Amino acid sequence: MAEILPNSSKKLLQYILDRIDIPETKQEVGQIANLIIEHIFNLDRAEIIVDRSLNMTSKEKKMLDGYIDRVNNNEPIQYILEEAEFYGRKFMVNASVLIPRNETEELVALIVKENKEKKIKFLDIGTGSGCIAITLAKELKEPKSVAMDFDPRVIKTARANASKLDTEVEFLLIDILTEPIPGGSFDLIVSNPPYIRRSEKEQMKPNVLDHEPGMALFVNDNDPLIFYRRIGELAQAALKDGGKLYFEVNENFADDTKVMLEVMGYTSVDVIQDINGKDRIVRGLWSNDLFAQPEGF
């Protein structure tokens, strides 16, 4: 007997929900189903609610079944659809880059809020998909935008996103652990580097462990601040007097990062919590005159 295919958007939604079998909340599964429907059938959530009629083609059915199989194999929906939303824009993503997170949107929002009225030159270290650099280039006032990463595949993806979103960013292929920051006189340096300890793997979901790039996620347990220390040291020469340094951090090491930056000579160093109440952002000011009074943020 031939399978009876859904002939309306609500029936299609239920059809997908019945076939997705992953250890996620009902809300998360619903979001995945909505994204699949929007991508394949070009129906947004409002159109699903009003129950649009549809006639699924064999091509759409094959694509739908393939997507559901990949979801059930714990592949992130963003990699399946090859796009992720960040700060109201859609970025291309693939297995070479991390999927942008909500916490990083909060980091970007803070930077925009504190630097909105200034024309600045900024550097994004470990740019990944380019979501931080491109968003800042869009949201700030005519900035000079520079971003770097160590992987050519990552730089290729970030450049494709900048082109897609019609944004001018200079992307550099540089390994921050072994190479210096070229140039200088940056008003602002931002980084969301690898910060999850390898011992924390057992707490993570398979969709992250099995599919997202480990090099962008993990650091060794014996030196979890390796990237923050290196960037903090290099930023001393790369930042202008009064320049700002922003980090997204592991909640377990926010205070350690703060103390480390203060020992290096940064001032007005603060730990800022995310929407979930976790220590997520550390920011500080650099002054070439250690005895000068900081202006603050």
CATH architecture designation of the largest domain: 3-Layer(aba) Sandwich
Overall pLDDT score = 93
Q: Tell me the number of strands.
A: 11
The profile of the biggest β sheet is:
7 strands, mixed
What's the shape? elongated
**How many separate domains?**
2
Count of alpha/pi helices: 11
Here the CATH topology of the largest domain equals Rossmann fold
Strand content: 15-25%
The share of residues in helices is: 25-40%
> What is the C-level CATH assignment of the largest domain?
Alpha Beta
CATH superfamily assignment of the largest domain? Vaccinia Virus protein VP39
Distance between the termini: 68 Å
Q: How do the SSEs run, as a string of H and E? A: HHHHHEEHEHEHEEEHEHEHEE
Radius of gyration: 22 Å
Q: Strand arrangement, largest sheet?
A: 5-4-3-6-9-11-10
Structural class by helix and strand composition: alpha/beta
Write out key terms for the chains shown:
single chain; 297 residues; alpha/beta; Rossmann fold; 2 domains; 11 helices; 19% strand; elongated
Task: Reconstruct the topology from this structure.
Blueprint: H1 9-19, H2 26-41, H3 45-49, H4 58-72, H5 77-81, E1 84-86, E2 89-91, H6 102-115, E3 121-125, H7 131-139, E4 144-149, H8 152-164, E5 170-173, E6 186-191, E7 196-197, H9 206-209, E8 218-219, H10 226-238, E9 239-248, H11 254-264, E10 267-273, E11 279-286
Parallel strand pairs: 3-4, 3-6, 4-5, 6-9, 7-8
Antiparallel strand pairs: 1-2, 9-11, 10-11
Helix pairs in contact: 1-2, 6-7, 10-11
